Amino acid sequence: MVDTVLEITGLTVAFGGSKILHGIDLRMGTEPLSIVGRNGMGKTTLCQSILGLAPVTGGKITFKGFDITGLKPNKIARRGIAYVPQGRRVFRSLSVDEHLRLAAGGHKGGRWSIEAIYALFPRLAERRRNGGMELSGGEQQMLAIGRALLLDPDLIVMDEPTEGLAPVIVDKVIDVLTEVGKSGVSVLLVEQNFSVATSVSARLLVMVNGLVALETTSSAMRSDEDLQRRYLGVSTQV
Questions:
Q1: Following CA atoms 120, 28, 30, 44 in sequence, which dihedral angle do they give, to the nearest 10 degrees?
Q2: How far apart are CA 120 and CA 197, in angstroms?
Q3: Residue 14 pairs with which residues in a beta bridge?
Q4: What element of type H or E holds 8?
Q5: For an engineered disulfide with 62, which of 7, 42, 146, 193 has Cβ 3.0 to 4.6 Å away?
Q6: For residue 186, what are the β-bridge partners?
Q7: Helix, strand, or coil (residue 177)
Q8: Which residues of 67-87 are buried (b: 16+ CB within 10 A; e: fewer)?
Q9: pLDDT tens for residues 60-100?
Q10: Contact at 8 Å (CB) between 12 and 23?
Q11: Rounded Cα distance, 90 and 143, in Å
Q12: Which phi and psi (to 5°) does residue 81 adopt?
């Protein structure tokens, strides 16, 4: 693949003697990539391993040609990877504006500014003086995405960004991820919402029991009811 941004080979991760990832191989370039799978398949652990938040026991993670395996999270972030974790994790005591100013502090002159985040999410501009816990789930997700973009990343890893959101907010998130991809930021989306995953990227990976069990296209997966039932236990067919 030309212009490889992220490459993972033979990745294994274990917690307390229990192996969660069993040899993940993954390669992505500048185009968005979605990873889907049922609960408990290791998707979040994969995200955490890329960001240095999970104990890698084998294999290699390369970002833009540099081996980041085993680096601390802050050093990985400085290399250009941002993370939008499952559950948003905003600070109760900080306002929207304080969250964004804190994230933007060391990244002046990047592709994204606080003003650009407010333009992307007008609702955040309206709520800029509200604390993190005064926001709705959708507003918290907007804040989490904006905070990550202000790190001026080359790759943004997003773990279940539409979980628990109303359909109208889900549609907004899809639009935002599409816009982010066009801005030059690579998007790795881990998403249980099949419709969102296939809307954001043309390429799709399916995880089963800590392994990439299938690599396909979003269009092929959408049109194959048997594949959907076999790997996801769902079907979009009427």
A1: 10
A2: 21
A3: 19
A4: strand 6-15
A5: 7
A6: 155
A7: helix
A8: ebbebeeeebbeebbbbbbbe
A9: 999 999 999 989 999 999 999 999 998 778 888 899 999 99
A10: yes
A11: 8
A12: -115, 125
How far apart are alpha carbons 168 and 39 in whole angstroms?
24
Tens of pLDDT, residues 158-171: 999 998 888 998 99
Tokens at 25, concatenated: 């191989």
Six token digits for residue 89: 């994790």
Q: Cα–Cα distance between 113 and 142 in angstroms, integer?
A: 15
Q: Distances from the Cα of 141 to the Cαs of 9, 94, 157, 166, 201, in angstroms?
A: 31, 15, 14, 12, 20
C-alpha dist (Å) from residue 97 to 107, 146, 196, 203 = 16, 11, 28, 35
Structure pTM?
0.90
